[in-house]
Design a protein that fits this description.
By secondary structure, the chain is an alpha/beta fold. It has 12 helices and 9 strands. It folds into 2 domains: about 300 residues, Ribonuclease H-like superfamily/Ribonuclease H (Nucleotidyltransferase, domain 5, 2-Layer Sandwich), CATH 3.30.420; about 50 residues, no CATH class. Helices cover about 45% and strands about 20% of the residues. Strands 5-2-1-6-9-8-7 form a 7-stranded mixed sheet, with helices on both faces. The protein has a two-stranded parallel sheet with strand order 3-4. About 0% of the residues have low confidence.
């Protein structure tokens, strides 16, 4: 079946003062007959941008801010993240580990005391600031049972349409590394753009080989894509990306199709592919970018659970958890300041400069 690779990239944690910046990318094989915009309507019975539980008859894929609401937001986000990791993994029974998903950043993350608990995300504490509840619809066992039922149905639905999730990749930039990168580049918008483009290139290189080797359900011959589409959210209000794209993609010439406040679009010939780049407001309304939004938010919330647990344990007193956004982060900073001083941890280690 003729098709193309579609890559969606999104972030979580661009604005907060505490916690990591996480960027995720998902790559899909999509038949040429189905546009990326049409995917949202085509799979509306499978993916919706809202909490899936307690009913559990679809997966929460879309803008993570619309999913992470109410008492079922976090388990719904976790359910979707687990499906995405399993669907993209060779071992679909367990999916990718956090270590494997964050391989490029893992050793550095493990050197930051408040992220060491990411080794086993199943043991992280509940997200009290997200309104977690311990009932029959939201626990790990409930998520696993829903996944066992709905996961195969959605996989079969995609297969019949000729769509396949090929890969998931992510970057997790801790506070010290974030501050270093911002100091070097001069602003966090450039950091976001550089990381997003590098990640899109990495996953494109990876899935290009995956698609060529893929046999079976679509064709007796290996899939040989000739086109890659990449979708991004706008980065900090930036409208012009041509120079950044040329720098990120090996200096190839990048043509500008349009540049404006709502969408900036480009095209290039890179690595034997015709590549189309789209930076748009509300890009996570598309399934590939919405899936990336879910993965990025899931990783960040796991990291924030680890961060909150660390500081509460070291402070030896109850501390109301923070999501890391400026006003509440100021409150949290006052509560942990004495503990950080006692441990010899400077504020530059746990507070983001921008």
């Amino acid at each position: 079946m003729d098709g193309r690779i579609v890559i969606g990239v999104d972030e979580a944690g661009y604005g907060p003062s505490m916690g990591p910046l996480v960027i995720a990318a998902t790559a899909w094989w999509v038949p040429n007959a189905l546009s990326t915009e049409q995917m949202t309507e085509e799979f509306a019975d499978c993916f919706q941008p809202k909490p899936a539980l307690p009913r559990g008859n679809f997966l929460s894929i879309g803008d993570s801010k619309k999913i992470l609401v109410g008492k079922y937001g976090w388990p719904s986000l976790s359910l979707a993240a687990q499906w995405l990791l399993r669907e993209s993994s060779r071992d679909e029974s367990t999916g990718a580990s956090m270590k494997g998903l964050l391989d490029e950043d893992w050793s550095r993350l493990q050197s930051v005391p408040w992220y060491r608990a990411l080794t086993d995300v199943s043991r992280l504490p509940t997200h009290r600031y997200l309104g977690d509840v311990d009932d029959s619809h939201s626990g790990p066992k409930a998520i696993e049972s829903v996944l066992a039922v709905i996961g195969p149905k959605i996989s079969e639905r995609l297969e019949k349409s000729g769509v396949k999730l090929l890969a998931v990749q992510a970057r997790c930039i801790d506070e010290p590394e974030f501050n270093r990168m911002v100091s070097k580049s001069g602003n966090k918008s450039t950091v976001l753009s550089d990381l997003s483009l590098a990640l899109s290139k990495s996953i494109a290189n990876h899935v290009g080989m995956v698609a060529v080797d893929l046999h079976g359900q679509f064709s007796r011959e290996p899939l040989q894509p000739k086109c890659i589409e990449m979708f991004f959210d706008k980065h900090g209000g930036r409208n012009r990306y041509q120079a950044m794209l040329m720098n990120a993609f090996d200096g190839v010439w990048v043509e500008t199709d349009c540049e404006g406040p709502k969408i900036s679009a480009y095209r290039a010939r890179w690595s034997d592919y015709d590549v189309h780049f789209s930076f748009r407001v509300g890009g996570d309304s598309l399934i590939p970018s919405g899936a990336a939004s879910v993965i990025a938010k899931w990783i960040r919330e796991c990291a924030m659970a680890s961060l909150n647990a660390y500081w509460e344990q070291e402070s030896q007193m109850p501390i109301r958890p923070t999501a890391g956004y400026y006003v509440d982060a100021l409150r949290f900073a006052k509560e942990i300041d004495a503990t950080a001083m006692r441990l010899g941890i400077s504020k530059e280690m746990w507070w983001r400069t921008k």
